[in-house]
Specification:
2 copies of one chain form a homodimer. By secondary structure, the first copy, chain A, is an alpha+beta fold. Chain A has a single domain, classed as Thiol Ester Dehydrase, Chain A (Roll). In chain A, 26% of the residues lie in helices and 27% in strands. Chain A is built from 7 helices and 9 strands; from the N terminus they run ααααβββαββαββββα. Chain A has a 7-stranded antiparallel beta sheet. Chain A starts with a helix and ends with a helix.
Chain lengths: 253, 253
């Protein structure tokens, strides 16, 4: 049982539960890259298992502004030293998948999840560009998370503009990922969102979360959504997350 | 221009812009039923136009709890008098569509919207039961809005549970609809959501919003999400909406 749950938790971190959270700090601070850490072989999977699609990588729907910002942060994930050797840079790209544990093996709870049709809310649409296109980067020195987000045409709320709930979804995703890095598995306890300016469909936005403090099981984070050039503030948010024992969720307690 | 915009606004109200808002009070207080008011003929459409799908009506994915609650409120939308005549009851079901203005006619702005692939965020999935299944009812005497919501398997956040953003989306949808009835076209200005208890995927929930006050352009509303029997509180929210001139959004200003 313990072994199964251990694997469940590994998979959980890998796929970013609780608002698409990224891997835990123990993995992020490894000397290996995020991509290497989550290779199927390390999860003990048969080699014939195909690699899951990483939704945080560029696709044909990404516009020029999305690509410009992606390249800006991605180029800082690895830096070349004088001797030509490559080292980790200040930023790390966080991979993103659409379901839990599909590619791992485990016990009865895992089996239930594998059979499930459940998909991560932000990655549930197969049409690239139609809903949430985004990629997250984390900077451990600055304790910041940045997401680049392109809002697709199926996210409409007010005519021609992004639904307030879709914006809240991206905020929860980014601050949830950030809280997960800081504190391991967490759940959202409070989101207080000020909507300052409507967002036209198709926009590319920057979502930046900053750690305020950690107190016991509580993690306090602020988050801003701005236009891609930073000139327009669309929303500002304070968020509270609380650490949980992930097995409680998996066991349905 | 004025005529076109007038029609735009009619369509806007009809399809529930800004968080899937319902028709304005002027239509809701009509002696005709909501269904009759929004018949294509009244919108001046050719008879060969098919009626748009009303997503708030039952489908095969609705579980027994969803159907029980739907029947409970729907039975109070029309009451039979002593002589057998039917009259409006205390509740009104609010229809729900997946795009703006598809079935109306109008000017250049309307034409642009008709050509658009944009779809309402909460109604963008064709697979019934996969994402948001919900129906809204409004009680004008009590100034309350109630939604019955069944959370589909594509709304996952934490493993096996609903994403915090999907819950925020439903809250924004319900309080936005309520604010729209009270004050005409509005946008979300603030959502302050306390997440008290995770929601398992597949759950049927009751979302109830209550008007606190209206001050000038501001509308203050509270909202609770509970289990279908009311025994478990999942979230409580305070929300602020602000009236806008909808033509500003449509004209892209």
């Amino acid at each position: 049982m313990a072994r199964s749950l251990g694997r469940v938790c590994l998979g959980f971190h890998r796929l970013g539960a609780l608002s698409s959270a990224p891997p835990p700090p123990s993995l992020l601070t490894s000397s290996r890259s995020v991509r290497t850490i989550f290779a199927p072989a390390i999860l003990g999977l048969p080699s014939f298992f195909s690699k899951p699609r990483d939704f945080s990588l560029p696709n044909s729907s990404w516009g020029s502004e999305m690509m410009r910002l992606y390249k800006h942060y991605n180029s800082q994930c690895e830096v070349e030293m004088e001797g030509g050797e490559k080292q980790e840079g200040p930023w790390q790209r966080l991979p993103s998948y659409n379901r839990f544990l599909k590619y791992a093996t485990g016990g009865v709870y895992l089996s239930k999840i594998i059979q499930s049709k459940a998909r991560l809310f932000t990655r549930n649409n197969r049409d690239t560009g139609a809903t949430f296109e985004y990629v997250l980067f984390f900077n451990s020195e600055e304790q910041k998370c940045v997401a680049i987000f392109q809002a697709g045409h199926l996210l409409e709320g007010p005519p021609g503009h992004v639904h307030g709930g879709a914006i809240a979804t991206m905020i929860d995703t980014v601050v949830g990922a950030h809280a997960n890095i800081v504190s391991g598995p967490v759940v959202t306890a409070n989101l207080n969102i000020n909507y300052r300016r409507p967002i036209p469909l198709g926009s590319t936005l920057v979502i930046e979360s900053s750690l305020i403090k950690k107190e016991g099981k509580k993690v306090f984070i602020t988050c801003k959504v701005t236009s891609s050039d930073g000139s327009k503030l669309h929303t500002d948010t304070t968020a509270l997350f609380v650490s949980i024992n992930i097995s409680h969720l998996l066991l349905g307690s």
